[in-house]
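TL;DR need structure tokens for one chain.
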Amino acid sequence: MSLVFITGGGKRLGSHLVLEFAKKGWDVVFSYFESQNNSEKILQIILRQNIKAKSYKLDVRNHNELEATFKEIVNEFGVPDVLINNAGVFPERKAIENISLDLWEDTMNINLRSAFLCSQIFKKYAKKGSRIINISSIGGSEVWKQRIPYNVSKAGLNQLTKVLARELAPNISVNAVCPGIISFEETGENEKYLPEIRKIPMARYGIADDIFDAVYFFATCSRYITGQVLNVDGGYHDAR
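>> reply
TL;DR here they are.
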């Protein structure tokens, strides 16, 4: 039985990845930070399927917590076959003069630094043939007005994917999936900034299943595929 560890698995895209891997018969461990109630609901759904699963409250900015969580996972479940660095934040729009140092550092620490730290720790335990999948964004290759910390952090994550692929080969493959505009049931301040659907060649916003398909491909494809950064955006980025 294969085991996947997904950071930020308590809500939105992360929770969908958790549930879909479980449907595929994978054992699943995942972390959450604030979404404890939802994480417990997800866990109960999975456990009813006779799948091994556990959730961990984890601040991915904290190196000691990351180390302890990995040790606990390995001791209880064994070494994950796949690490998915999904934890991330999408801050509200801010003009450069309104970007505080705390906002800058928090965005970098969650979107970029945590993926590096998780990958670094994972390497200590990983078996030959293991995989790392980073959840990035088309924002890593685009320039969006008043999204400086987000754009820079995701651009860094794309580059981290490529250098880790070289650094960890041939034992571990490393790839990234870059979602485009994904529609979720939850709404928020950022919904005001969605592009018009007519600007998306496939004529719709993405859904979580679109992203899972790409993630699952990297989780199961030939390990000769590594260092790839894949846009899943309905053609939006390349059509601009």
